[in-house]
Prior knowledge:
Blueprint: H1 4-17, H2 19-25, H3 48-66, E1 74-77, H4 82-92, H5 97-103, H6 105-115, H7 120-129, E2 135-141, H8 145-160, E3 164-174, E4 179-180, H9 183-186, E5 190-205, E6 217-222, E7 233-236, E8 241-247, E9 250-255, E10 267-273, H10 274-277, E11 281-282, E12 300-303, E13 315-318, H11 324-333, H12 363-372, E14 376-387, E15 397-406, H13 412-420, E16 423-425, H14 428-431, H15 433-439, E17 444-445, E18 447-448, E19 458-461, E20 469-471, H16 475-481, E21 487-492, H17 497-501, H18 518-533, E22 539-542, H19 546-558, E23 564-566, H20 584-589, H21 607-624, E24 629-634, H22 636-647, H23 651-656, H24 658-661, E25 668-672, E26 696-697, E27 705-708, E28 712-713, H25 715-720, H26 722-725, H27 734-738, E29 748-751, H28 758-770, E30 781-785, E31 788-789, H29 806-813, H30 815-824, E32 832-833, H31 836-860, H32 876-897, H33 901-923, H34 925-929, H35 934-955, H36 960-971, H37 991-1016, E33 1025-1029, H38 1036-1046, E34 1048-1052, E35 1061-1064, E36 1069-1072, H39 1077-1098, E37 1107-1112, H40 1125-1132, E38 1134-1139, E39 1148-1153, E40 1159-1166
Parallel strand pairs: 1-2, 6-9, 7-12, 16-30, 21-24, 22-23, 22-24, 29-30, 31-32, 33-34, 37-38
Antiparallel strand pairs: 3-4, 3-15, 5-6, 5-11, 5-14, 7-13, 8-9, 8-10, 15-17, 18-28, 19-20, 19-27, 21-25, 26-27, 33-36, 35-36, 37-40, 39-40
Helix pairs in contact: 1-36, 3-30, 4-6, 13-15, 18-19, 21-22, 29-30, 30-31, 31-33, 31-35, 32-33, 32-35, 32-37, 33-35, 35-36, 37-38
Amino acid sequence: MEFAPLEEQVIKRWRAIKAFEKSVLLRPKNKRFVFYEGPPTANGMPGLHHILARSFKDVMCRYKTMRGYRVERRAGWDTHGLPVEIQVEKELGFKNKKDIEEYGIAKFNQRCRDSVWRYRQEWEHLTERMGYWVDVSDPYTTYDPLYMESLFWVLSQAFKKDILYEGYRVSPFCTRCGTSLSSHEVAQGYEDVVDQSVFVRFRVHNTQSDTIPEGTSILVWTTTPWTLPANIALAVGEKIPYAVVEQENEHFIIAEEQVSVLGDSFKKIRTISGKDLVGLRYDPPFDALREHSDTDEAFCVYGADFVTTGEGTGVVHIAPPYGDDDYQLALKHGLPVVHTVNLDGAFNNLVKGWKGKNAKESDSLIIDALKKRSLLYKKERYKHSYPFCWRCSLPLIYYARHSWFLRMSALKDDLIEANNAINWVPQHIKNGRFGEWLVDVKDWALSRSRYWGTPLPIWRCDAQECDALSVLGSRKDIAEATKGRNSYILVRHGETAKNSKGLFAGDYPESVEYDLLPRGSKVVQKTAEDIQKKGGIDIIFTSPFLRTRQTADIISKQLGGVEVIVDKRLAETRHGVWEGKSVRLLDEEYPDLRKMFVDAPKGAETFTQVQKRVVRFIQDLEKKYSGKKIALVSHGDPLFLLEKAIQGWTVDETITRLDALKLSPGAYKVCSYAQFPINDKGDLDFHRPYIDDITFSCKKCDTGVMRREPYLADVWFDSGAMPYASTHYPFQRKQQIEKGEVFPADYISEAVDQTRGWFYTLLAVSTMVQSPNVTTPPFRNGISLGHVLDSKGKKMSKSKGNIVDPILLADKYGMDAVRWYFFTVNNPGDVKRFTEKDVAQAQRTSIALFYNSFLFVRTYAPNETVPSRAPRADSVLERWILIRLGEVALSVATFLDEYDVMNAARTLEDFIVNDLSRWYIRRSRNAFQRPSSSQELRKRARVALWVLSETAQLLAPFTPFIAEEVWQSIHNTQKQSVHWEEWKIRKEMTKQDKTILSSMHSIRLYAQAVLRVRAEHKIRVRQPLSAVILPRHVSSAFSNLLREEVNVESIVKEKYHNGSWKYDEEHDVGLDIRLTPELKHEGMIRECIRRIQEARKTLGLHASDDIAIYYRVPQQVADIFDGDKERIASETGARTLEEGVSHLHNEVKVEVPVNDKDVVMFSIAPFV
């Protein structure tokens, strides 16, 4: 059975009936289940691991929907960050940040913006193909200006709470990407590497101590030889005992616990305390910092509590710019912090001879130089865990630089308390991987020196003596900071004939000059009088068109002859080929006015072009005038576009409120000027370089200019703030957040590495926003998923050639099978060693068995309908399956309520495989194939269809396609969906129900015991036997089921002890294994029927299709079928059953042994 075509048909039906949308709308708004979609990046292809994560997201959302909850699922896209930049850099052939700046930040960021959607179509196709229901029509997007405004607000709150601060710190730094990384980013990129470590002589000088001989060297071990040119001090443990040793006429100082590094041939002279070494001076191994370190503090030994003796020599070489402990020691003792390595990772001009060489790759040069100077004691290969950039995969270095931080260490208790309120699956995540991370939480290194991302909204005064800082958290803050020096009144010209006729008239010089209509002049006169009452104006600027000049003149006259200045930048929009034509063309050809910002008819201006000229115009006014009231007389489009720009509205916001924005002819409004970042497409854009152009006067010193700090925020901050930013909090949906309607999430799920990523940043940001009154974590339940590896336990990658295409996998086995594999293979938090055969197994053992059970019932009862409520069961088998179904439904629901998806799925799998298919359906075959009456068949079918329908509902969250196909087929509809149903959970079981379950459990154990006896004596199940012995308490209703299952003719209750009876003593059952000629014959007839039925399947025939059979048997058994031909024909649906040579077309031939040496040959074909 190929399930992929079936799934594709289900998808089409879902589209037609808007199944997902309606599944949400059918549920009440006051019963919500909140789900957050962790935003993926669409600049890379989706992979198999995305199927894993999205399956676990989908199953819980579908389940909660089917339990009556309203589950709104909004898709999201993570659009910023270095992975995007790196991809674009590769495409452009760039090697460093200088290349980007020469290319232009605006152009580079536009390329980044375009690239993030490269694989959007593939993502959305996979989303639909796997049955992941999430709203992709209105996703939240992290580069959206409204999203970014919320991010600004979060940071402004952090600044007000003293959580956001600046500092000079040593942080992990990527020289390729040119930016620092946060601790949670670094945690994602550790790899085991082998580096060259060195033991170096640091020669002590001017010793006046009897305990330390002249010419002694302090032996120092380091795994970063490239930092040795930056050495400024040595550190020892003051309480650590050190040995002074002699070896081959040299003297060394080394921690007493580590003298073994010297080998065997040395002599220990004495032991001294680390405290006695403090103050010793030495010669540095390189001269790079000598001229920068002419103080007594440099090249001296200091005591430090971070020194240990677990490895090395018990002495630490101090290079302050390249280690946090080193840097803190330098601050404490006033040591200079001087870089010998540039931000690009190359040695600077302080390192003579190696300037421009990559420092991290220069270890061999350093070692050779040490050897030539007789400073290298020895070198060793050293295996250790080292951090690599998670974005470009190059090794990081620790580098001291100016950064902005979030003070997460101050929120540690709140973070831990919030984590304690989260239900984690697996449970060990709470106090293990995640909890341990929080206990040792570091301040978040937030700032990044890059281009495509959310800029830090921090402005600093450029005056040398001023320390003013301002964090702008909203457009309102920006408007206040950049508030103009003048006030403005926008006036639209009075009505003309072109307005009343609805014509375009934007050419200048004017091809047709339109005078104001009398009623238009009256409206303008009224406007002039209103302006006069409100204090008048100082100057009027007007468009050069006749209608605007006439309007300006009326206002000027009313106000006593105020000066009127004509400026072409206020002119009407140029309409090109539309000039003189009906304005209805706009609605016809541009139904979505957003397009007008980037496109226009031939010869016409775009809205963006018009906006640019009116914005340049008002900016010039701001430079030229101060404290003036200025009237701007123009046209509808230029005025609303000017207002859009100086109010900081997005294109979407503008189009939404366009009817309210556009002034009617002769009307006016008062506006304030503010400067907002507008991109080349005319839209509000908080990205670089546009945000960098926002400057304003310093209010603290009155002389300086506030300029933005040139940093971006860590991209993980974007996604971590999504509960707030995706709703544009606090500017929109404020009540929904604060009343708990959309925050916190009831459920999220991602891979285990997100404990250092999204899981953590969600918690960090929400804790920061709520501080100091943290009341709730950002999510209540989280499933952390193990990684998907190949069958050998290796990470999947293109370079290794072990990538699995999820679409090809779905085409082969169906997506239900892939989902089911992930749900059942192991605990969700465990690593998945993926093999295709496991997916095939998932399809065979569950999906196919369920579907085949449905096909069996439909085959024999094609026209029967499912009852609207649970049917009455006549047989004990039917009563049992209905009770068992209820028990399973309760069990599955209980597991899912605990977010235990694996056990829920395995419980359902066990029911489908062992209860439904291998017991209920198998034991019902005779009732369907050979019913005593049509009424009996109808009763049996109604029970079976009810069971299948209810099972389809239980399966729906897990395997949505096969569940929908079966449910819709049973209910004979394509306009309803199983996913709109609510589960029926029966929570109580009667005593009789429990007795039936227990009895059926026992009879199945007895059956298994009897079948084991058969197997031990190599008697196949299809061979009838005469009798079986059962315990006396087994009722006939149950024993008859066993008789059919184990294929015996009778049940006895007395034990026999002759040789033909074989027993299973554990279950107290016995089997008579004698094979009489009659039993052998019956077994042969049944085998013939079975083989003929298999031939029907091979021919692709339905149960109701007639067949023709010819057979040939050896002469010595010619009468073998006498008395059985009618039975064979009846049970196989044969219209003819004749002995002789076949003349059939499209026939299938089968052979059946009739005894130890003879066979019968059947030829089977459709009857024609």
